[in-house]
Write a structure and sequence with these properties.
Number of strands: 7
Helix content: 55-70%
Strand order of the largest sheet: 1-2-4-3
Largest sheet: 4 strands, mixed
Radius of gyration: 35 Å
Length: 639
């Protein structure tokens, strides 16, 4: 019987149909296998792509970094290169005397004692003189015109006054007062006598309440005392006291700084001869507490009772005139900066054309340096864990203020009660009285922070009680801050100054006694203090002035590291800001950084100053590497 077609043998070349379920499983297996291979391929492709991108980035960055070797040929770069080059004395071996090498050309053109910072201060004085003597533009807003007019009237009276009768009459009236009233008059006009009176935050408490501080008076030299007595004689005030009498009186007063907060009731116990109730009544205030030193009060009591009336009167008269300007331009400018700082600051900034971009660049530089300190604190071997934690908190909390300025309306209100006369001495006394009157009105305010400068000064100041760095407007000038100059010059110059001042937040002289919030308390552990003392002893063995050396090293090291950190993380724009200068292509960027450092701190004719700078450089390894100098056998590093 023939088989059915389904049972017949397959034709030649025809394969039997596979089982449907088995075929599906086999297909799924092939797909899974293909899927695994695809995943591996993708991972491999990603890795290859990353390598390619990294290589391209490295190549591009290397190519970008070569822009630093380009020479800037702009007019400004040519002038900057010429200034730096002319200051050099290339005949000197930089390893033997780097300061002479970097500044010998500049020193040859200046007198002994001259500093680069003093030259900039002279430029600031010139700008202030211009704004204080020029015609007020009619389009100036009313508030600004009023403020500037008051400033100009004060300056004109200081330069022009020849009538000394008001000065003599005021001193004679002072000498006719009782002792407590005379003392109160002097302090009400912000004048030092017996002690220095001021309103400051009480840093012993986190409340930082505005508190009256009694501190030692500012010491005066024999020549300063004689100059004051000669002035009194010239205006017709006859005194029996001699300069030697006042020197002995001053020497008897203790130099103890305010270290304890005392109830006012304690003052009669420590210095009973001063009629404190009458004194505070004449001063116009009744404080509940005083920040002072018991040792200072006891010395005041001892000298007060032992001083003859003639010497007492001579000291009071001298204290009244010791700070008066003598009518020269320089003296009037200095006194105006000290007495009318906030008012002057606003109009100097406009006169000097300090734009927001200039202020922002200085602020960025300071912040870059602060970040460098922050990174370095993680590495310092002499910090233990607890002190490191506190130091990091303090560096993080540090606030930076660059040339702060109040509005015209705020200044008009602040100085509304300052009446300017035509007499130099009266205006100086009135400015002091204005300052003290406003300060006394703030007693009890918490937290208290009255900004005290540096205003137009060519300096930066660290304020421990506020953990704050204030940068004066006078620093924001060429050559200290030249916004168009290469970055290595800016950090070598201004950067080192800011880094040096910032170091006081963390040093043994100031920083260890104030915490991140400006409260006075010792936050270093014994272990950290001991390790730090060993480093200081090592520096002393090298013949270095330890306190100065620590600050010098900090300024140099942290400005250099901040600059290099920017280079290591920068792009085309950063590299373009580090191009070479005409005439200086034989010097590396690192060498020019150190040249800028020496040129900022240059001082003609001071061997001790030059030795300090050379020691700071010689003990810094990147300097020795840059100039191929022999390194000292022993290096002691705090920073």
């Amino acid at each position: 019987m023939p088989r059915r077609s389904s049972e017949q043998a397959p034709l030649l070349g025809r394969r039997p149909r596979p089982n449907t379920l088995s075929a599906a499983q086999e297909s799924l297996s092939r797909m899974e296998h293909a899927s695994v291979l695809s995943g591996r391929d993708i991972v491999l492709m990603i890795v290859c792509l990353c390598l390619v991108v990294t290589g391209l980035y490295t190549l591009i960055k290397y190519d970008d970094r070569r822009r630093m070797d380009d020479v800037c040929v702009s007019r400004h770069c040519v002038k900057t290169g010429a200034r730096v080059l002319h200051a050099l004395d290339e005949a000197v071996d930089p390893c033997h005397d780097f300061v002479a090498f970097a500044t010998g050309g500049w020193q040859a053109q200046h007198d002994n004692g001259t500093r680069v910072l003093d030259e900039v201060a002279s430029d600031v004085d010139h700008a202030i003189h211009k704004l204080a003597t020029r015609r007020i533009p009619p389009e100036m807003p009313d508030a600004d015109a009023h403020n500037l007019g008051k400033l100009q009237a004060w300056y004109a009276a200081c330069l022009a006054t020849n009538d000394t009768q008001p000065e003599a009459d005021t001193v004679r009236a002072l000498l006719a007062m009782t002792r407590p009233h005379a003392l109160a008059w002097l302090h009400a006009h912000a004048l030092d006598a017996w002690f220095q009176l001021s309103v400051q935050p009480d840093a012993s408490s986190s409340a930082h309440k505005a508190t009256l501080h009694l501190a030692p008076p500012t010491p005066a030299s024999a020549s300063d005392i004689q100059a004051g007595l000669t002035r009194l004689q010239q205006v017709g005030v006859a005194l029996e006291a001699q300069a030697g009498d006042l020197l002995r009186l001053q020497a008897g007063l203790a130099s103890a700084a305010p270290e304890e907060t005392l109830p006012t009731d304690e003052l009669p116990r420590l210095a009973p001869s001063i009629e404190w109730d009458a004194y505070f009544s004449a001063l116009g205030t009744q404080p509940s507490h005083i920040r002072t030193s018991a040792a200072l009060l006891r010395s005041i009591e001892q000298v007060w009772t032992a001083t003859p009336e003639s010497v007492w009167r001579g000291y009071a008269a001298w204290a009244a005139v010791r700070s008066l300007p003598d009518g020269t331009r320089r003296a009037c400018l200095r006194h105006m900066q000290a007495s009318l700082g906030p008012l002057l600051n606003r109009y100097y900034i406009a006169e000097a054309k300090l734009s927001g971009a200039v202020v922002a660049q200085a602020a960025r530089m300071a912040d870059d340096i602060r970040a460098t300190y922050f990174r370095r604190l993680y590495e310092l071997p002499w910090l233990d864990a607890e002190t490191r934690r506190m130091a990091l908190a303090k560096a993080s909390a540090l606030s930076i203020h660059v040339a702060p300025s109040a509005s015209a309306q705020e200044l008009a209100q602040q100085y509304a009660d300052l009446n300017v006369s035509q007499h130099r001495a009266q205006n100086a006394w009135r400015a002091g009285a204005h300052h003290m009157r406003h300060a006394l009105s703030e007693l009890g305010v918490s937290p208290y922070h009255a900004r005290q400068g540096p205003w137009t000064a060519v300096q930066a100041a660290y304020l421990p009680a506020h953990n704050e760095l204030d940068i004066g407007a006078g620093l924001l000038r060429t050559p200290i801050l030249d916004t168009a100059a290469p970055m290595y010059l800016r950090f070598g110059g201004l950067g080192s100054l800011l880094a040096r001042e910032m170091s006081h937040a963390l040093d043994s002289a100031h920083g260890q006694f104030y915490d991140a919030y400006g409260t006075r308390r010792a936050w270093w552990t014994n272990a950290t203090a001991q390790a730090y003392a060993e480093l200081e002893a090592c520096m002393a063995q090298q013949g270095r002035d330890v306190l100065q050396a620590v600050s010098d090293d900090a300024g140099l090291v942290h400005s250099y590291r901040a600059w290099h950190h920017i280079l290591d993380n920068g792009g085309m724009r950063v590299f373009e800001q580090n191009q070479r200068l005409p005439g200086l292509v034989l010097y590396s960027h690192e060498q020019l950084f150190f040249i800028a450092y020496a040129q900022l701190w240059a001082q003609r004719g001071s061997e001790s100053h030059a030795r300090r700078l050379h020691q700071a450089l010689a003990h810094f390894a990147p300097f020795a590497a840059a100039f191929e100098c022999k390194a000292p056998s022993t290096r002691c590093h705090v920073w």
